[in-house]
Sequence to fold (635 residues):
Amino acid sequence: MTFPAARRLRSALAACAAALAVGLVVPQPGVAQEGAAAVQDVTLTDVMLPFGATVVKVPKLTASGTRLSKDDLAAILKPDGPEPWATRLARLDAASLTAPVVDSEHAGPGDLRQSATYRDVVAKDVRAGKIGELTASGVTLSSKGTKAAPGAAGTYGAFRATDVDLAAFGRLATEAGDGKGPVLRVYGSLQLSDIAISSEKGTTVKVTRLEGRDLGARQVPGGWNGTLDALSGGFDDPATQRRSASAAADVLSAQTVGSIDIRGVSISDSTAEPLLAEIERLFYASTGPDAGVGIEGFSLANGATRTRLGRLTLTGTSLGPVIAELRRLAEKPDTTPGADEARRLATGLGTFTLTDLTVDLPPETPVQKRGALDTPREKMAQGAKPARARMAEARAPDAKAGDPLVPIPAKVNRVVLRRGVFGPGPVVEGAPASTRLTLTGLDVPASLAAGLPLVGALPAYGYGDLSFDMSADAAWDDAARTVALRDVTLSGKDIGTVKLAALFGGIGPELFSGSVPAQTMLLFSGNARTLDLTVENSGLFERFLAAQAKELSLKPDELRKEYVTASVLGVPVILGNGPAAKNIGAAMGQFVMNPGKLTIRAKAKEPTGIGFVELGTAPSPAAVLDRLDVDAKAN
Fold:
């Protein structure tokens, strides 16, 4: 499995690096030296600067306001100079550096070749290897690869960067480190506009504007050039898996970003079913009110399906568990990443919050009216007519009340979620110690609920579109080996509310291991200790009663009395006729007579609870109820 997106990211990063290198390359010409001659302008031609797999070429470079001589500048920019790039770049000093064209070429991984051409490059206020402002009027990108790494081409508009540290860039690109050293800031700020990149496979990415602040990193093993190459290698075999996982861990642990703000993103794909994704804003911030990662104004058109999202944010992210899992994958290249690895990678993601999600699914096919072509002979007769005549007859007739030939408009199936929050808690033994999920304003067409348990029956009771709120709050205590469902609530508009709370014991980290044998063992070690159930009616019972009464040709009050009798007398018999069974039956009878709220609380008499195996193999409900303290009441 390879990652073209990672390769394109590598291309984009290489392009930015090239822009830096442009500044780097440009700066080198003017290495300020103590005691040099008076300030002057110096021009060099055919400058070539190799930075590992990246080579920057400058056909013409002019250093203005520098005290360096031409020979001094040429010595500094010599490809095989005796001193490291970082050391030489730190001596750079000039009022400005200009280059009509700067070319950056990067080889790898494999046969992939990436290039970037910068036009009208100007570096101002170059002091001690740092550029006050670096600009370019435009950038042209190209990538040529193999089947596994398809080629791409693109352009950037205006490029601007401030506080560019060329020495830091040189050290990060070519010098290895352990990923734990000091952060080297490369850019104070970075701005790109009018980005457009297209791949040979038909994917086009456009960005109106990109801004970043305080971009830097620590030195990593093999240097950043080698790390980014390894990152795009994928997980096709154990060797590439080891390199990719290790490189991803290095990138996540060593990079630092103050903030990134991307506006006007569009992604289109014409290879199969047309796809268009648009994003008004993508952002990341390490601090402040926008701390975290976010998306605003997202829309996706994929065939007949349309999706829109107002805002999605991810906060409280901890990269520690992600980095640890990537290191583990790098140490065990024979392990094929699966669901367990995906879960471990996701444990530190933080809290997701989304607002105003709308999904328009393909419309239902309208029922054909009488007169439609539904026989082979009619179809053959229609096919024999001239195309113009067939098109004229295919036009929708004028709408008239009661006209059976007027087509029925196709109904759009729209699913809406006004707000959703998913937040796993701190990670313990590779799993979140707590998890909370909240869905507010989930609207679903009744037609989509058909066939689902319980919910699928609602349209029969007169419900059209269904509106729900849901919340779930669970906690796992590793020391006590318990899982608590603190609150699971599902409520429907004009339907009712169901609340559930429970405590289960004998559950350890094997529940989250992803191993089927380990999870199966929970059937023998796990137990149920408490259960609280609350049912509150908000209109469903009356609709159910009316529908059943109509079907049985009874009055609703007559049917209600029969249900009361069945609850008070029948339920206890079914449950064993013990004290707990009679308590439940009496409470259900009261609820049927006056449908309001029904609450049932059950607690195991033994502190260790009732084992899951015992619950599954109990000979009768009475055998379970006899081991419980039950309290049931209505209203």
Observations:
- The two ends are 59 Å apart (CA to CA).
- Residues 359 and 577 are 50 Å apart (CA to CA).
- Residues 1-37, 367-375, 387-397, 404-408 have pLDDT under 50 and may be disordered.
